[in-house]
Task: inverse folding
């Protein structure tokens, strides 16, 4: 079955026809070319596909595209503005928060949600915010440091 949906993606209004069985992750990557959310486990366990849906972190592999009609969605492509990286992106680069990078988009999205609600999070709050994001490279210490530094340069 086909569904007509309209939503905001990274600040832009879009309309699409999606199939009942299509996930948000599939539509973002394959129909919109937004490849920052990654296919990891596809079972809601790893967080590689994380996006903000109406300000909340969701695993886009677990959301049907037909459900996002009227929603406001943010992916990592929407973090940078005017050719300038977001402080979180800069900090991940400067403090080695990215190794293979497969988890990075999900980590950035969870970190963005955290900084939206807490300007100067403690380490424990950062750890809690990342509980749904797995890093197979074990770069957690550098990821946490990246978020801590970015929170001081937050915009
Ligand atoms: S790919 Fe969605 S949670 Fe792992
Ligand atoms: S940097 Fe490789 S999975 Fe996290």
Result:
């Amino acid at each position: 079955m086909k569904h007509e949906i309209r939503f905001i993606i990274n600040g832009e209004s879009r309309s699409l026809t999606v199939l009942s069985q299509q996930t948000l992750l599939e539509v973002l990557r394959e129909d919109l070319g937004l490849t920052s959310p990654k296919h990891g486990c596809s079972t809601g366990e790893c967080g590689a596909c994380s996006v903000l849906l109406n300000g909340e972190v969701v695993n886009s592999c677990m959301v049907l595209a037909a459900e996002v009609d009227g929603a406001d969605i943010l992916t990592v492509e929407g973090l940078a503005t005017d050719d300038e990286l977001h402080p979180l992106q800069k900090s991940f680069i400067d403090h080695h928060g990215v190794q293979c990078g497969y988890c990075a988009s999900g980590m950035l999205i969870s970190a963005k949600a955290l900084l939206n609600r807490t300007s100067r999070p403690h380490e424990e709050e950062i750890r809690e915010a990342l509980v749904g994001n797995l890093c197979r490279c074990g770069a957690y210490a550098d990821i946490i440091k990246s978020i801590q530094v970015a929170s001081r340069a937050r915009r």
Observations:
- The first strand starts at residue 2 and ends at 9.
- The pocket of FE2/S2 (inorganic) cluster (ligand 1) is lined by residues 39-42, 44-49, 59, 61 (CB under 6 Å).
- The longest helix spans residues 104-117.
- The chain has five helices and five strands.
